[in-house]
Design a protein that fits this description.
Two copies of one chain form a homodimer. The first copy, chain A, has five helices and three strands; from the N terminus they run ααβααββα. With 119 residues, chain A is mostly helical. The first copy, chain A, has one domain: Winged helix-like DNA-binding domain superfamily/Winged helix DNA-binding domain (Arc Repressor Mutant, subunit A, Orthogonal Bundle), CATH 1.10.10.10. In chain A, helix 2 packs across helix 5.
DNA sequence: CTCTCATGGTTTCCAAAGGGTACCAATGGC
DNA sequence: GCCATTGGTACCCTTTGGAAACCATGAGAG
């Protein structure tokens, strides 16, 4: 059975933990078009704080999803780029965002129905 | 551009927050085969605590992803089942788990390379 | 020489979420 | 009365997420 993700010891869980981070998802989407600098990412991904963005990027680097290239310049320049592995992750992520855009209305409606239920 | 998920005010973000919960993902996978009871889910999804499972199920119900059916029996019986909306979410989620199973080795290897790098 | 600006973070602090354990209500069996 | 089962809830603590401030470096302005 493929769904051994149910076993907490299965490494697949480890992936879900990665996907289960909305910032990682947004970083993958942001880098899909090519390398970007830290501040670019920060501006592009609305609402992310530098600390969390750094954490996210470092973890993704550790997991082999992206590379971090520091240029010895002033002011500093650091470019982040997806590895082939990270790039391949873009496809399933795109499937999620496609689903999201298609069904977001239904979810919002369900939520409104539930929350605002007048009795 | 479809990636308006970058805007924190875009409702697509709301979906990512949902997907961005590994327990929701596992619940969808668990219910893909048909309705299940609370304790079944709890046993099937290794490592989830009842509190968190309840939270997850309630949120998913609110979002229209599943239904909760309480039978007036003793001991109590509660069945959870995916709605068509929840069922449709199974496809992109499957894409993620497929990716995970295919590339988990690479991620684990990258992580080991990074962590254990002897110098 | 000092002041300012820009970049790519780090540090500190606080609130929120996640998770573990214990417990509850209702009823059947013993 | 006591235990077991089910589907949770309550309590508490640790971890995480997030806001805001600060830092090092060097160029350019004054």
């Amino acid at each position: 059975m493929r769904g051994d993700a149910f076993d907490p010891d299965c490494p697949t869980r480890l992936i879900l933990d990665r996907i289960g981070d909305k910032w990682s998802v947004l970083v993958v989407l942001s880098l899909a078009g090519g390398p970007r600098r830290f501040t670019e990412l920060r501006r592009r991904i609305g609402g992310v704080t530098p600390k969390v963005l750094t954490q996210t990027l470092r973890t993704m680097e550790r997991d082999g999803l992206l590379t971090r290239h520091v240029f010895a310049e002033v002011p500093p320049r650091v470019e982040y780029a997806l590895t082939p592995l990270g790039l391949s992750l873009g496809r399933p992520i795109q499937a999620i965002t496609d689903w999201a855009e298609e069904h977001v209305e239904a979810v919002v409606a369900a939520r409104a129905r539930h929350d605002g239920l007048p009795g």
